Amino acid sequence: MWRSNDATRKAIVPAAKTIDIHTHIIPEHLPRWAQKFGYGGFVFLEHHEPGCARMMVDDKFFRTIQSNCWDPDVRIKECDHHHVDVQVLSTIPVMFNYWAQPQHTLDVSKFLNDHIAEVVKKYPERFVGLGTVPLQSVDLAIKELERCVKDLGFAGLQIGSNVNQKNLNEREFFPFWEAAEKLGVCIFIHPWEMFGREKIEKYWLPWLVGMPAETSRAMASMIFGGVFEKFPKLRVAFAHGGGSFPATIGRIEHGFNERPDLVAVDNAINPRSYINKIYLDTLVHDKLVLEYLVKLWGTDKLCLGTDYPFPLGELEPGKLIKSMNFEKTTEKNLLWNNAWQWLKGNNTKAMH
Fold first, then answer.
1. In whole numbers, what is the pLDDT of the chain averaged over residues?
2. Distance from first CA to last CA of the chain, Å, rounded?
3. What are φ and ψ of residue 109, in 5° steps?
4. Distance between CA atoms of 350 and 352, rounded to whole angstroms?
5. Structural domain boundaries of the chain?
6. CATH top-level class of 13-31+67-343
7. Whole-angstrom Cα distance, residue 232 to residue 228?
8. Which of 20, 75, 209, 328 holds its CA 20 to 30 A away from the CA of 26?
9. Residues 16-58: pLDDT tens digits?
């Protein structure tokens, strides 16, 4: 039930040549939530030079960001340079704050969502919004989901791959999935709080190894936990080409077949059967991997995603897809058509 304004609807029409479903944005200035709420752990920004800021968690450095992370005019210039027509905006995953008190996370979520809504309102032909919600409290998450869709005109939400190490198939999250399905929104699942990260800090391994595993964890949990069976109309996309799931589907299926007493306890459907029901972005950085992904996943559930504006993203959006010499229909699907279908679903009447 995406009820965005006419200009936004006009942006996401099949005339668009490139839609990037995986981009992150943050307000230029953040409140000092640690001071407001009385405890630490929240991100704030140190603007130490023009067009550059340090993301800090209390006194710990997280990463440096540039103005393209908050300035829509800079983003549009870079999009124009790379021929990206539409960016789907979502917050930086470190801003999920599922660990905090639920009401405080709701306050942060509203601040971030309102900012994205302002950017989309200013440039409705270039941006589409995904909200963030306090998923550690399903009741509050549903209320903010409804506000994001009904009041802010968002297409859906971005959520984390786990909620305080709880998998997304836990029954406490079923009302959230039910609400998302009923509203007809799209969901983008991004890895965060990678399990075991404290043991692999060296060499950037949490991002290089932990994130792909974390994405596979979320996907397998939702499959084995029966989420897609109970809520079959959900439109869910996973970041980073599905992480390690596509490469290990043979092992996952083998385990399902050989030890159903351990694997198929909540869902008796072969995990391979979900391949054509789940969306993935194409952020895999490798021609052979993308070729394999197209052969395995098909051509109607893969969407361009770049992780803009971060260094682990695709620095030239669409370059990998265009280098593959795919048939024109396949290239079109990966660059924008599948993203269009993911964003709008079957709600064609509301989109025209």
1. 93
2. 13
3. -60, -45
4. 6
5. 13-31+67-343, 32-66
6. alpha beta
7. 5
8. 209
9. 589 999 999 999 999 999 999 999 999 999 999 999 999 999 9
**0.85 cut: is pTM over it?**
yes
In order, the DSSP letters of 106-145 are: HHHHHHHHHHHHHHHHHSTTTEEEEE---TTSHHHHHHHH
Residue 130's identity, in one-letter code, is L
Q: What is the pLDDT of residue 55?
A: 97
d(CA 272, CA 249): 7
One-letter amino acid at 76 equals I
Sheet holding 52-57, edge to edge: 43-49, 52-57, 60-66
For 60, residues 6+ apart whose C-beta sits below 8 A from its C-beta are none
Q: Which of 264, 187, 179, 177 is nearest to 220 (CA)?
A: 264
Which tokens sit at 80?
């124009």
DSSP H helical segments within the chain, as ranges?
Answer: 6-11, 33-37, 72-82, 102-122, 138-150, 174-183, 205, 211-224, 227-230, 249-258, 260-263, 287-297, 319-322, 328-332, 338-344, 348-351
CA torsion through residues 265, 267, 272, 274, sign: negative
Residue pair 90/23 in contact (Cβ under 8 Å)? The answer is yes
- Residue at token pair 């077949």: 257
Q: How many CA atoms lie within 13 A of 7 on its CB side?
A: 8
